[in-house]
Write a structure and sequence with these properties.
This protein has 8 helices and 8 strands. About 40% of the residues lie in helices and about 25% in strands.
Amino acid sequence: MSLYRDEAVVLRTAKLGEADRIITLLTRGHGKIRAVAKGVRRIKSRFGARLEPFMRVDVLIAEGRSLDVVSQAESVAAYGAAIATDYAAYEAANVIVETADKLVNTEHEQTVRQYRLVIGALNALAKHAHAPRAIGDSYVMRALALAGWTPRLTTCVVCGQREGAYLSIAAGGVMCEADHTTDARRIPPLALRQFAALVDGDWTVLDAEPLDTVAEQLVEDWGEYYLERPIRSLRLIDS
């Protein structure tokens, strides 16, 4: 059974049998993997606390026939502890790991830039660097942009010239008064400016005032359309 070592962040866990868990990890060098952590639910587990969601770990993994097996896990950064004490940060962290899990479909396919983006967002949450909702929403839009779904927000997607006051998610960006389609919605200037800032990670704009509810809804709708399924953690925040 061959071994490999990698740095990873824990996206989610699921119970397996009486004492084991299946750990879904996003790794720096091997992309998304699912691996069994044996005995991790026992009180005397060697590394149970290190394999909880939001934890950044150095793992030694043994390749298996159907699922790999976690042989060792050492903490690199305990984001989970700082995030868990702030409910808003905890909600945003769930948005981040759910989006990453849905966005990276293929296992064992290297996604270094996506990995770095997840780590950066969780680190910002743990340090309380910005408003949690803004960190989570910006992560969603930047991750989708990395995957190829960047909204066009500076000029009309139809004529390519005029500034847009409407936005069509299906068309991929803004539309002007003359060319907008029936599915396009009129977006207030503040919401559009903040939506663009979320895509760019422009914290001078995002830190200036709370996110407009229209901008928040655009993130949820954009994510659901291009992932082809809802980001349930975002819906929970809005409910």
